[in-house]
Amino acid sequence: xxxxxxxxxxxxxxxxxxxxxxxxxxxxxxxxxxxxxxxxxxxxxxxxxxxxxxxxxxxxxxxxxxxxxxxxxxxxxxxxxxxxxxxxxxxxxxxxxxxxxxxxxxxxxxxxxxxxxxxxxxxxxxxxxxxxxxxxxxxxxxxxxxxxxxxxxxxxxxxxxxxxxxxxxxxxxxxxxxxxxxxxxxxxxxxxxxxxxxxxxxxxxxxxxxxxxxxxxxxxxxxxxxxxxxxxxxxxxxxxxxxxxxxxxxxxxxxxxxxxxxxxxxxxxxxxxxxxxxxxxxxxxxxxxxxxxxxxxxxxxxxxxxxxxxxxxxxxxxxxxxxxxxxxxxxxxxxxxxxxxxxxxxxxxxxxxxxxxxxxxxxxxxxxxxxxxxxxxxxxxxxxxxxxxxxxxxxxxxxxxxxxxxxxxxxxxxxxxxxxxxxxxxxxxxxxxxxxxxxxxxxxxxxxxxxxxxxxxxxxxxxxxxxxxxxxxxxxxxxxxxxxxxxxxxxxxxxxxxxxxxxxxxxxxxxxxxxxxxxxxxxxxxxxxxxxxxxxxxxxxxxxxxxxxxxxxxxxxxxxxxxxxxxxxxxxxxxxxxxxxxxxxxxxxxxxxxxxxxxxxxxxxxxxxxxxxxxxxxxxxxxxxxxxxxxxxxxxxxxxxxxxxxxxxxxxxxxxxxxxxxxxxxxxxxxxxxxxxxxxxxxxxxxxxxxxxxxxxxxxxxxxxxxxxxxxxxxxxxxxxxxxxxxxxxxxxxxxxxxxxxxxx
Length: 745
Prior knowledge:
About 75% of the residues lie in helices and about 0% in strands. By secondary structure, it is mainly α.
């Protein structure tokens, strides 16, 4: 301690020295030494005063604590003495307590007698009270009936409890009491039936007489309190009256649940056999019932039940569960495609919409997003799969029937209808896409994914349908070729078939734009495009075949002796082509343009074929000049015709081939043949050696050596053929005789 005190003094001195040094750092501060000394003296006095006060306070606290401890010690001694006295008295009174058993029994008997006296009035008037209660129940005076029932039950239960306390094993007396009050249980059951009846009609009762519903709830609440009291007594004594617990509150909720279920199940008023729209009617009736009932619950019924019942939430869930069970039952039935769509649209869209559970009056009471789905996802998927299977089967049948109907129109004696622009068409595209549109509108009501599935299925079926459409168009052409007089409007309906392909394309693009979010092509797009183009090209080819069947006789006259001496074959060809193309003007673009180009090419090719077949060999220069002039004239006729048909577009190249061949024939100096032939070959590089040989043979004046020289020179300087946009000689074959001549060269 001394060391500690010395150390403390040293620290204090050091601190003081440091403070003084801080105060006297400048010379002018020496004048204030006395002032500093007084200030430090005041601080020292203040600190000493605080220390004294603190020490005094601690001493007072210690003094008070010692005094309380001394008093507590005295109290403990007094308690110890008292406990010793109690223990002594208890040992002396054990024998006295054992002698009081008779008093105890007398007390129990007195309690029973007191209970009997208290209930004596009810005991003697039980039959009368039972009769009065029965009348009250029948008159629907439920609160008064319940009051009397409670009095009867209270008398019975008190008597049985006292008997149980006196002798729990005395079943004879217990049964005597139970039998005497035997009709009370029947009254309880009758009253319960009345309560359940009111609850079953709760929706009507709450509108007509809400006080009746309130009375029922009050009775049930009373019984719940009695149940709880009896159960608490059972825990303490082991006794519980007969018929307890009644659990009427639990039974009330079961009745309400059954009422809601019955209301939902009873909404079906018609069957499929009586009305094809039975599903739509059923769902609409259910929607109306549920919405009306829940609004009644919110506005009226909630006021008839205690707040802790959470009445609206409870009814909301009851209706949701009942509807869920009902739609699952419907989903398990053998539904047709339209019924599946109606059900799923209602379940997935209508149910949570403002028309039903999302109604503004209900949204404030319950969050519809907390509800479980009406149908499990696997059931929804199963229904969608079933719909797609049925839809596939149905649409295949619909398309087949539509095509059969359209085919019948092809054989009519009247022309097909024309659209507003005058193009021939049939009703097939409109029927098909109306069918697609209707089903897609229905699918869109379910969800976006399903809508796109249906669209892809439509396109897949469309592809198969177009393949059959092409086959039927080919069969139509073959039927016509067996008798060209029938059908009478073959050309017009073939034009309509071609135009339908254009309409199909536009309709498909319209459907995809309207019902398909993605701009990516589907897996059927390429196949559909190809099939439609094939049908259109086939149709155009069939029509051109029809034209050239009529021209066949006149084409056979070309480049013959009869032609050379004078014939109207080309005039007839031009008139016939123009006549046909007056009908072909009713073909939509681009098919009509392509068809005109193909007709032009084919006329020129047929003309040149006539040259290559050596129907005539010119005998002299006059015949060659006359034939060449006629060829040039006829080439100009063809130019004029096809300029007219193509509205002035460039058509000279094809017809110039005829003029170029004519120049080969017209040449008077055989020695210049090589130059003329070279010019022809340079303009039309797809021309082959056998074509040159045929032309030289037709001139009739080219020697063997000249032919050989021309061919050898041409072979040495043959122009490259890299593919021409519109070849002429490529498809022209030369008769076998000319091939032999070529080999001889």
